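Reagents: none. Just compute today. PTS glucose transporter subunit IIA.
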Amino acid sequence: MSTVSSPVSGRVVGLDGVPDPVFAGAMVGQGTAVDPPRGAMDAVAPLDGIVVSLHPHAFVVVDAEGHGVLTHLGIDTVQLGGEGFEALVGKGDTVERGQPVVRWDPSAVEAAGKSPICPVIALDAGADALSDMVPAGEVRAGDTLFLWS
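Predicted 3D structure written out:
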C-alpha cells in the first residue's frame, strides 16, 4: 500500500473541479486535485521514489511498488514554456515524500491566463485501487490525499 501525499498546500477540489475535460474525466487516471494558494511555493514529492519524468510544469514519481504518481502544476501550463518554473531535482533522482521538486508561483500561472489547479494522478491505477480519498477541504503539502493498494 502506498500513501500519496499532497504536493502542494491548498483546497482539495477533486477531479470534478479541474477545468480540463481530460483530467476531469479521469482519462489520464484516477486521483484528485488541489487548488493552491497564490504566491511562490515548492511542489513536493507525493511519495518516496524515483523521478521518472520531469518537465517544468509536471513530474512523475514512481515508488518501490511501481506506483507512479503524476503531479501536474496547473492546467495548460505546458504553453508557458517553462516560464516561472524551476526544477529542484533531476530526472532519475531519488526523492523522499515532502522533498521539494519544483519551485513555481500559482499567481503567475493565473496572471498568464491559466488555471493553477494541480491534478495528482495515480497512473495505471484501477478504479478500485484508491481508498481513503480526501473528498474536500484544506490540505497542507505532505498531508495524505489517498491510499493506493
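The mean pLDDT is 97.
Action item: order primers for follow-up constructs.
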